[in-house]
Specification:
Layout lengths: L6 E10 L2 E6 L2 E6 L18 E8 L6 E3 L2 H10 L2 H7 L11 H8 L5 H10 L2 E3 L3 E3 L11 H17 L14 E8 L5 E6 L9 E5 L6 E4 L3 H10 L10 H4 L2 H4 L2 E3 H4 L3
Parallel strand pairs: 3-5
Antiparallel strand pairs: 1-2, 1-4, 2-3, 4-5, 6-7, 6-12, 7-8, 8-9, 9-10, 10-11
Helix pairs in contact: 2-6
Length: 263
């Protein structure tokens, strides 16, 4: 059975004005005209026998709808870890409705699709008793995405001016950091490494230890980093001893800001 966000090598089996029929790993599917690269000017027209990479956009349709656009493929890859995280750590309900354009304008950058999905499903709050997901519009500036971005930029600039070493990843032209997570107690901050020529869905995670100058880079999305921590599969030095810090009842628990900050 097909599922949304799955990625396949597909073969075009028929072409029509409205799109192309494809075959993927024993399943038939359809790529609407605007979800095929040939929709863009100067690209070759679709033809029977063409092979391409595509992702499932809607597995509930008959036939299932695919996309072969690079942007949709990148987005699908970034969303793959949100669904297993939801199964492992069920959201308490509610989530958030966010005007993302306002947050992105304030930050000066678009945000990854998987992060937006996490905030919309969970809202901001605490995963596994230790890892806080920042959110736009949080009433407490400590856990607000936009407020923390401005504050951390100022703090890091002062540290670097005082002689602390920048992480090597920031020596690449125009790279910057945007924080998305915070380790309660330890004080570690988790950032996206933002490069102007890299799509948000391809940003990686970089961690700054809370009580020292060390940094740790991970070539994963924020949702994969969260999933790996909750599942006990992380390669991060700073979260490998999670079972010594939190009780088993908190491992798969999410506590939303609305619950924590009202106490």
């Amino acid at each position: 059975m097909l599922a949304d966000h799955q990625e396949f090598n597909v073969v075009v089996t028929a072409v029509a004005p409205v799109g192309t029929a494809v075959h993927a790993d024993g399943h038939d599917g359809f790529i609407d005209r605007m979800k095929h690269p040939s929709w863009w000017p100067d690209n070759p027209r679709a033809a029977v026998g063409d092979r391409m990479r595509a992702v499932v956009l809607d597995a509930t349709r008959t036939p299932p709808r695919f996309s072969a656009l690079p942007s949709d493929i990148r987005t699908a890859r970034s969303l793959r870890h949100t669904e297993p995280l939801v199964r492992l750590c069920p959201p308490p309900g509610g989530g958030r409705t966010v005007k993302w354009s306002t947050a992105e304008e304030a930050l000066g950058t678009a945000l990854p699709a998987d992060y937006k999905r996490l905030v919309e499903i969970y809202g901001g709050g605490l995963f596994a008793g230790i890892l806080w997901l920042l959110e736009p519009g949080c009433p407490d500036a400590m856990y607000d995405l936009v407020a923390q971005t401005a504050e951390r930029e100022e703090i890091l600039a002062e540290l670097w001016e005082a002689g602390e070493d920048k992480p090597s990843e920031l020596h690449e032209g125009n790279a910057r950091l945007v924080p998305w997570g915070y380790a309660e107690g330890a004080g570690h901050f988790l950032y996206w490494l933002v490069r102007p020529d890299v799509e948000p869905e391809e940003w990686t995670v970089i961690l700054n230890e809370g009580r020292g100058p060390l940094w740790e880079a991970h070539s994963v999305s924020c949702s994969q980093f969260l999933l790996d921590v909750v599942a006990g599969m992380t390669t991060s030095f700073y979260f490998t001893d999670l079972d010594d810090i939190i009780g088993p009842e908190d491992r798969n628990r999410f506590a939303p800001n609305s619950q924590i900050l009202s106490q």
